[in-house]
């Protein structure tokens, strides 16, 4: 057992590495993956279509009782469906990450992220305090790409959000959608 797995199981319960995310339908995942191939022509590790997502709130290692609390909190979120327009490219050069995201954050997306962060706090979790920068990672260990507008935006109709488990593997994380909640006003 790895030290990470031992740490995750310390304290009595099986812990899971979780986060809330927007998880696109396959057609949007494919469109974003094609975009990644155009942006990152060589080098780097491109994410496969089934791994493409937008993280809303990273939760870290979570025990079963806290997960149940998070699921109750997620069920109370009231945000209407919206369209997310992915129209900008960028990079986090130090992390060697290439990403795409919205030039303007839709108000429902900002409200969704804030509501989920509040739910996590009510469940006793500390989350990242940095400002929310909505983005979809397309490649890791990649050379930076010029930031700026995309020639053709990807339109993503957002109708739900998900609780996701990250399985850490030597070749990179694998993701499992555990549960989805529909957006509603």
Structure explained in plain terms:
The chain has 185 residues and is of the alpha+beta class. The chain has one domain: Alpha-Beta Complex (Cyclic Phosphodiesterase, Chain: A). Helix content is 26%, strand content 36%. The chain contains 4 helices and 9 strands; from the N terminus they run αβαββαββαββββ. The strands form 2 sheets. A 5-stranded antiparallel beta sheet has the order 2-6-5-4-7, covered by helices on one side. A hairpin with a 4-residue loop joins strand 4 and strand 5. The longest helix is centred in the middle third of the chain and has 16 residues, at 107-122. It starts with a helix and ends with a strand. Residues 1-11 have low confidence and may be disordered.
Summarize the entry for a quick read:
By secondary structure, the chain is of the alpha+beta class.
The residue fraction in helices comes out at 25-40%
Distance between the termini: 45 Å
Largest sheet, strands/sense/barrel: 5 strands, antiparallel
Order of helices and strands: HEHEEHEEHEEEE
How many runs of DSSP E, i.e. beta strands?
Answer: 9
Mean pLDDT: 90
